[in-house]
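Subject line: Sequence and fold of a protein, written as structure tokens
Body of memo: The sequence and its backbone structure tokens, given next.
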Amino acid sequence: MNKKALRIIGFLLILIGIIFLIIGFNGIFAFASSLSFGAFGGASRGILQLFIGGGCILVGAFMVYASYIGKIFSYATKEVSPGIERVSRAVGKGFSKGYNKKKK
């Protein structure tokens, strides 16, 4: 699967997850407003829809993250590598001079 497909499917899963969350919260809040015996079924369906929506959001977010991970790491590498080079040069100079501590 290419990166574009991962992004599209990931965003669709996130959207579907949000819809499931809204429907699930609606079912739970409908249970809270009417305490009849039939409302328990609505609450259990609402909880199930919350879990399904949360799972869809997690999977979709991971797919979007996986599609952008190359860009994230290449940017981080470009930003961090000059600092690492400076530090390694300074450490190299320090090791070449040695460590001479006077003992009292």
Notes: The helical segments are 3-33, 39-97. Residues 89 and 95 are 10 Å apart (CA to CA). The chain has a mean pLDDT of 83. The two ends are 67 Å apart (CA to CA).
